[in-house]
Amino acid sequence: MKRLWSILLTGVLLAAGGFAAWRFGPDLLASKEAEPEPAPEVETRPKDRVALTEAKADAAHLKIEEVTRRSLVPQRWVPGRIDYNARRHTHIKAPSDGVIREILVRTGDTVEAGQAMCVIDSPDIGERRADVQQKEDDLKLARRESDWWHEVQSNLGDLIGALREATDLRKVQATFQDRTLGDYRNQLIGAYSRFLLADRLSARLKPLADEGLATVRSLNEQVSAREIGEAEFSSLCEQAKFEVQQKRGRADSAFADAERRLAIARQRLSWLTGGGEPPGGMKDESLSTWPLAAPMSGTVEEVPIAPLERVKQGDDLMLVADTTHLYVQADIREKDWGAIHVAQGQMIEVQSPALAGRRLEAKVSYMGRSVVVESRAVPLIAEIDNPDGLLRPGMFVRVALPEAKPREVVAIPEGAVVSHEGRVMVFVAAGEREFEAREIKTGIQEGGTVEVVAGLQPGEKVVTEGAFVLKSELLLEPEE
Fold this sequence. Notes:
Blueprint: H1 2-34, E1 49-51, H2 54-60, E2 63-66, E3 68-72, E4 75-84, E5 89-93, E6 98-103, E7 110-111, E8 116-121, H3 123-164, H4 169-175, H5 184-211, H6 216-273, E9 289-293, E10 298-302, E11 310-311, E12 316-321, E13 325-333, H7 334-337, E14 347-351, E15 360-367, E16 377-385, E17 396-402, E18 407-413, E19 418-420, E20 423-431, E21 434-439, E22 441-446, E23 449-454, E24 461-465, H8 467-476
Antiparallel strand pairs: 1-21, 2-24, 3-18, 4-13, 4-17, 5-12, 6-8, 6-11, 7-10, 8-9, 10-12, 13-16, 14-15, 14-17, 15-16, 18-23, 19-20, 20-21, 22-23
Helix pairs in contact: 3-5, 3-6, 5-6
């Protein structure tokens, strides 16, 4: 019985297998035949590498440099601003109360030192100028008087000498007829004439007295008259010399005093107006008007006034500045002061958001010796050249100040560093026209040089120019 069931089960299984082969066999064979063969393996490049064709490499103008160790100074960036150079700018203020008659310049004009900028009309200026004119007239009179007495003294000496040696009074009178002597001409010539007359009479009377034709008393009286005449002449000469010397001295003193008073009057006018006499001198009809001149060459920065505007003494009229040389003023907080090491005359780096990518340098002029109460900072002033006028007073800047002594670090040029999605990278030469994008960690930065803390070793070669082209090629690589 069991044997019979075994035979029946075997038959059923064979029948089922045959039916399956008949029903599904062709489809299985066709499916097996349609299965594709595996694709051959293709060599792929890592995602952090870039290979350039020869044409692309030539167009990119790549520059490759070797990584080296350099001496860098740690720096701290502090906020700062551009300001006028204190020695190269000035506010022109109203010298006194008055009215602005004319404005001769506009904001932005370039002016030369001494150039007229505006005209003010002021009674105070008129009074000072009138006082100067009066003192000038006084000086002219004092000079003429002094010169006159000098001439009198010189001529007086010559006249006395000529009279003492004269034999012909008429000849002496003719010689000194046109020479300045004042009253002393008549006094001296008259006294000498009387002496000369007495001398001649005594000379004629002596022979007569010897012959008995004249009394001895008459001779003695005439001799006495001669001696008195000679004494009077000598005395008058001495008196005349003394008087002329005194009068000349007083004239010289008056002249010197007139010079001093004129100098004082001019100085008062200069203090009031800020300059000397305007071109063309002073005229009576315009004594109260005064052209205010530029005290220095530069650019007109501000003109806050208008014609016919009334101004008071000390009001700002204009601002003139030489903007080719400016100040950089940085505020060093108390917490930073101890870490910063700067000295007078040292060059520091300056950056301005308005001039992105441009490196500027300034020379430290001086550092404050006390903390400003309002800002709680120590001011640092540096001078910066501005020949092209790109910097303007009031602009915000960042100032790099050294923190310590220089130290040796692994460094690369700033142009070698690129960034992408928060990663800082460089491209390292990995073969002919092939470059590896390598992430690095940077440190201090100074003057276009960047410290590499990690990621590079001295001797490796990196792309310092054209790294942006390689970055673009890297981002264009298809993802695997």
